[in-house]
Each structure stands twice: as structure tokens, then as C-alpha cells.
Amino acid sequence: GQNIDQPTEMTATEGAIVQINCTYQTSGFNGLFWYQQHAGEAPTFLSYNVLDGLEEKGRFSSFLSRSKGYSYLLLKELQMKDSASYLCAVRGVGGGATNKLIFGTGTLLAVQP
Amino acid sequence: DSGVTQTPKHLITATGQRVTLRCSPRSGDLSVYWYQQSLDQGLQFLIQYYNGEERAKGNILERFSAQQFPDLHSELNLSSLELGDSALYFCASSKIGTGVSHTIYFGEGSWLTVV
Predict the structure, then answer these.
(1) Contact yes or no for A33/B103 (Cβ under 8 A)
(2) What is the pLDDT of residues B21-70, one digit of tens each?
(3) A45 contacts in B (CB within 8 Å)?
(4) Which residue among A30, A58, A95, B95 has its CA within the 20 to 30 Å range from the CA of B53?
(5) Which residues does residue A19 pair with via DSSP β-bridges, in sequence order?
(6) Which residues contact A95 (CB under 8 A, 6 or more apart)?
(7) How many beta-carbon pairs below 8 A join chains A and B?
């Protein structure tokens, strides 16, 4: 089976740093993705980890520990526009060349002034 | 703009009816995915096609079907619609393989309201 867990909601202050955690249990693993989704809009790709460690991309960083089934997304210098849902997704190992992503339910982040 | 095009953007229809949602993948992407997002649920994987063939199936109802045509566009057919089918339906596309270059990119979605 596959299970991906994230906190449902988080609140943070403009200019601060926030860490959104994701734990996963999947039958196979071929990469972990983070997407940002504003209400009613398409998810947009933020980051990708397949090896253990930290990947940094501007104000956003993502960390992966495969042995612990754990990832986090770190957002620095928060801006009001960062208020959105953040989706953790795992790409499994499947036969027949499938790249499908399995998503967690997402973390709704509210950035306050 | 992800390069994935979906039509229609909004659709209102009655219970029992049938609708077709259309998707054009990004240029060069052979794989198309369909996801459903309801208010109380996250993104649920429905089905994947690769170069015209079904590759993976998720929690897709028997009332739903999809296909991918030779020009690589895809259609999702929803029939005998129920109120609970009201949701945002996303199409996504990717190249096949591992690595960040094979990231899945999403279209803007089709809002379906069943009344």
C-alpha cells in the first residue's frame, strides 16, 4: 500500500521560515516531489529529491531521508503570495514505464502579516 | 503556463448525463495522466496513458473511461454522472523515465459541477 502524511494546516508570519514535513510509506520509491497549489489552480512543480540530502532552489529547499521515509520543504523569507497548499508526492516504481505520482492531501499554509 | 491545455475550463451538467474532458499534452510528452481533486480529498490518480496505450490505473470508477489518440491528445469520459462526481479534473503530462526532467506538469483543470 501507499501512504503519504502531511500536516493539514500551518500558519506562519511574513518574513519568517516555515518547514512542512512529509512522511511516506510506499511499495516503491523513485523520487519525491513538492508542488505548490493556489486555490482552484493547477499544481506547480517546486522541487524534486531522489537521493538523500538537501536540494536548494532560491527561497525553497527540500530535504529527503529515504531510510526514514521522510521529507520536508523549507520556505524562507515568507511572502504573502506563498499562502497556498503544498503537496508532497511520491513517484513509485512501476512496470510498464509508469511515472505516476501519488499525492498526499496537502498542507494549507497561511502567511500572516 | 505549463503547456498542458485542458477544455472546457468549467462545465455544469445534470445527474445522469455524460461529459467529455479534453487534454493536449506538452509538446514532446508522450505520457498523459488524469487526476481528480474533490473539496474533501487530495489529488487522486485516475489513469495514465503512454503513446496511446493505458499504462497505469488508479481509483477510476467503471463509469469513467479515457483514451489517448494518435496525435497524443487525451479525453476523459464521465458517464451516469452523480453529485459526488463534482470536482476539479486535472490532466498532466510528462516524458517517460526517471529524473527531474521527467516531472509531471499539470493543466489548469476542468471544473465539473453536477447538479
Answers:
(1) yes
(2) 999 999 999 999 999 999 877 899 999 999 999 998 998 999 999 999 99
(3) 103-105
(4) A30
(5) A74
(6) none
(7) 74
